[in-house]
Specification:
The protein has 239 residues and is α/β, with parallel strands linked by helices. The protein is built from 7 helices and 11 strands.
């Protein structure tokens, strides 16, 4: 039986396995999809080969560090600087980024001409896909992070948040089971009509989205992005 997988840590929040298993069942596809919760990437080669995996997805926190394990990277993924989909062919691991198309198709319908300035919360692999999308759309981007160089710090946002009409949470804050956590931004300064997007989709409405909604923002979680990128991964694995 053909087998696919998701690698990352932790994976208890993820709906990817359920999505693919439901897809396989409904379309009568003889395949399996498993979760491989890895504390370290040092285990990745043995785990993938040991389970006879044909292709796999990558989530937090390995979308950037997985690049060191690949035999090749698609040009689009290379330009993003992060990978979330690996195709295994002739024992070669080739990296792709399907988050970009998933995020763009999910967020673009929310955008109006007035939405010209985006603030990205977080600086990990997921943030790179959002940055790539906004830059391709001609939308200016700023990053807020606790550690990344040349980025804003959370404590610097007071008085500045109203400069942004798009805010995207790419951090795991608020993700199940830590559903009471949220990014420490001055929510009262969010402008009504702003677009606030959370890549987290479990729970359906995070504290971040609820607080943004209270300020009159247009909100959306990352479930549709997950579904789109999953289908794009499926196309890559079977191309």
């Amino acid at each position: 039986m053909t087998r696919y997988a998701l690698i990352g840590h932790p994976l208890s929040h993820s709906f990817s396995r359920d999505y693919f298993l439901n897809k396989f069942d409904s379309q009568q596809i003889k395949a399996d999809y498993i979760n491989l919760d890895l504390n370290k990437l040092l285990q990745v080669k043995s785990e993938i080969s040991g389970h006879n995996i044909q292709g796999f997805n990558v989530t937090i926190p390995y979308k950037e560090s997985i690049l060191n394990w690949l035999d090749g990277v698609d040009e689009n993924a290379k330009s993003v600087g992060a990978v979330n989909c690996i195709k295994i062919e002739n024992n070669r691991w080739i990296g792709y980024n399907t988050d970009v198309i998933g995020f763009q198709q999910s967020v673009e319908p929310l955008l109006a001409p007035k939405h010209r300035s985006a603030l990205i919360l977080g600086s990990g692999g997921a943030s790179k896909s959002a940055i790539h999308v906004f830059e391709s759309l001609g939308i200016s981007v700023a990053i807020v992070s606790r550690s990344a160089p040349d980025s804003l710090r959370y404590e610097e946002l007071d008085g500045k948040l109203a400069e942004f009409d798009i805010i995207v949470n790419t951090t795991p804050l608020g993700m199940s089971p830590s559903i009471d956590s949220f990014p420490p931004i001055p929510y009262g300064q969010i402008k009504p009509g702003s677009v606030c997007y959370d890549l987290v989709y479990n729970p359906e409405k995070t504290q971040f989205l609820a607080k943004c909604e209270q300020q009159g923002a247009i909100t959306k979680n990352g479930l549709e992005m997950l579904e789109i990128q999953a289908e794009e991964s499926w196309k890559i694995w079977n191309s």
